[in-house]
Write a structure and sequence with these properties.
single chain, about 200 residues, alpha+beta, 2 domains, two-stranded antiparallel ribbon, 5 strands, globular
Length: about 200
């Protein structure tokens, strides 16, 4: 993809935070997709370039796009079982990815967001840069009220369904890294309170 889209493509989401950052501490989970932002011009020009570029990917069978608002979804199925090539992506900073994970957790309450946020907040990051990223991301996604207070409230709300969160998320996490979900939620609440409130 780098050879087709170059620096206009920036890796984000679970793949970015796990493969680039959390992997450094040995706690990376599996991700079923790759999320990217594309900065190749206006919406119409970008749409055209994305469709053309995706058609040039040979290692995958590409189906799509399905379009929802300003999001294009392509389903890509790997075809070449032989050989491994290095890949290169631009990636958002850890602080930007943490801010995005916070908003994702606030909106959808998935175990993968809890897991990623827990491990990311245990890493070294620039607090001031994170606070700026949180402000920008919360504004972009129209988050009402204080994001940190909202996160704590959301975590307390989902704590009662910790078992269900584990059941729906554990298959993304290597067996040796699977957490006690009640403990990870409790710890994440304390981390957010201590670091941001």
């Amino acid at each position: 993809m780098w050879g087709i889209f170059g620096e206009d493509l920036i890796l984000k989401g679970g793949s970015a935070i796990n493969r680039v950052y959390i992997a450094k501490v040995g706690a990376a989970r599996f991700s079923e997709d790759i999320d990217v932002d594309y900065f190749g011009g206006g919406v119409e020009r970008s749409a055209r370039r994305i469709k053309e570029g995706m058609g040039r990917i040979r290692e995958f069978s590409v189906k799509g796009p399905r379009v929802l608002h300003r999001t294009f979804r392509f389903d890509c199925y790997y075809r070449n079982m032989l050989g491994v090539r290095e890949t290169m992506f631009k990636v958002y900073s850890l602080e930007d990815l943490i801010a995005r994970k916070m908003v994702a957790l606030l909106r959808r309450s998935e175990g993968k967001d809890i897991y990623d946020l827990f491990h990311a907040l245990n890493m070294e990051f620039d607090r001031e840069r994170l606070l700026k990223a949180v402000e920008m991301t919360a504004g972009f996604y129209h988050v009402e009220g204080d994001l940190f207070v909202g996160l704590i409230s959301k975590l307390r709300e989902v704590k009662g369904s910790a078992r269900g969160i584990g059941n729906s998320t554990n298959h993304f996490i290597p067996r040796s890294l699977r957490p006690n979900w009640q403990e990870i939620i409790d710890t994440l609440i304390v981390m957010i309170e201590n670091q941001f409130l």
